[in-house]
Amino acid sequence: MSLKKTLSAVSPLTLRIVAECPVTKARACDLVLPHCTVNTPVFMPVGTQGTLKGITVDQLESLGCQICLGNTYHLGMRPGPELIEKANGLHGFMKWKNNLLTDSGGFQMVSLVELSEVTEEGVKFKSPYDGKEILLSPEKSISIQNSLGSDIMMQLDDVVSSTVTGPRVEEAMHRSIRWLDRCIAANKNPDKQNLFAIIQGGLNAELRKICLEEMTQRDVPGFAIGGLSGGEEKDDFWRMVTLSTDHLPREKPRYLMGVGSVSMLWIWWSDFWFGSALVPWGSLQVKQKQYAKDFQPIDPDCQCPTCKRHSRAYLHALFKTDTAAMHHVTVHNIAYQLTLMRSVRQSIVEGRFPEFIRTFMKRMFPSSEQYPGWAVDALASVNITLD
Ligand SMILES: [Zn+2]
């Protein structure tokens, strides 16, 4: 059956390519979504997880965040889709006026819930709240995401850790294609909510290609690259990302999952995230003794509310007594990544992206001997040589 012909070509999304770097093929785009236009590449913070470490919707908005992520698993369990639907979806519930992306809920289940079992029907798991057995099927995932009303929804996919090899990877890839078709059929709001397919296939190039070929025949509004960033070698990661982006349709958006941003170059930053402040020269632990009497802001060049007002010494003292210190660092980190992505975009638009990367790397690693090998290889694969 040719799905391309049977499905409506109308989607609530438009992608305009603003500029493309001739050297790396990195793109700057305007992604027009139902709630506002997103300027890509973009950093997408997690906005609605029950356990988010202190940042308010107001703050996210004033930092210029155009799209944030809602966790379907957490929201689907508590407060539950019925309540959120009554509040006019997640936008109404959290009073968020910009775009939202929701995941399928499957990944959290597989990673957080020990007792989960995957069958053709869906993912079975025991509720951590009351021990009841719950089935998350492709239909159920889309039904929850339809209730949440997100601008971008993710298909339920069969998630296998990227360190797994053998027949299970192939099974999961084929099942993800079948589940994509069930998700497409279950979507009640194709005119308002964009369903993204997730490319699977582990670290096996042949399986990735089959998945890409099959899924790009479906008329979905966008694609995500899944099944990565789960502990694989960094150069395996890059090979799979490049293979996937080479085969994806040019006119549709791509989303690199689980790495915090669609940019291909700031992946390792997520390693630094916990408890540290991100700075152009790496990361800074305000808790360390050396900052006790340091009256500079975290980053003197940063324009965020934390850096405009507070010193390292103040934050250092605050860390001893108050969780608000973590909050201030989170505000800085989110502002920092949003600003960084804006600079990346600007450099693509102005045709100086490779130069931007070289400068960025030099600041992060003062001596070229410190460049991580995988970063050198990944950059070489997009024609950027570091000096
Ligand atoms: Zn700052």
From TrEMBL:
Pfam name, any one: TGT
Domain of life of the organism encoding this protein: Eukaryota
InterPro entries: TGT (IPR004803), TGT-like_sf (IPR036511), tRNA_ribo_trans-like (IPR002616)
Annotated residues for binding of Zn(2+): 302, 304, 307, 332
Domain tRNA-guanine(15) transglycosylase-like span(s) in chain numbering: 24-265, 274-364
EC number(s) stated in the UniProt entry for this protein: 2.4.2.64
Membrane-topology descriptor: Peripheral membrane protein
Record's subcellular location: Cytoplasm; Mitochondrion outer membrane
Gene Ontology cellular component terms for the protein in this record: cytosol; mitochondrial outer membrane
Lineage per the UniProt record: Eukaryota, Metazoa, Chordata, Craniata, Vertebrata
Organism for this UniProt entry: Myripristis murdjan (pinecone soldierfish)
Function: Catalytic subunit of the queuine tRNA-ribosyltransferase (TGT) that catalyzes the base-exchange of a guanine (G) residue with queuine (Q) at position 34 (anticodon wobble position) in tRNAs with GU(N) anticodons (tRNA-Asp, -Asn, -His and -Tyr), resulting in the hypermodified nucleoside queuosine (7-(((4,5-cis-dihydroxy-2-cyclopenten-1-yl)amino)methyl)-7-deazaguanosine). Catalysis occurs through a double-displacement mechanism. The nucleophile active site attacks the C1' of nucleotide 34 to detach the guanine base from the RNA, forming a covalent enzyme-RNA intermediate.
One GO term of the biological process aspect: tRNA modification
Cofactor(s) the protein needs: Zn(2+)
Main location: cytoplasm
Subunit comment: Heterodimer of a catalytic subunit QTRT1 and an accessory subunit QTRT2.
Keywords assigned by UniProt, alphabetized: Cytoplasm, Glycosyltransferase, Membrane, Metal-binding, Mitochondrion, Mitochondrion outer membrane, Transferase, tRNA processing, Zinc
Family to which the UniProt record says this protein belongs: Belongs to the queuine tRNA-ribosyltransferase family.
Manganese found in the keyword field: no
Identification of the protein by name: Queuine tRNA-ribosyltransferase catalytic subunit 1
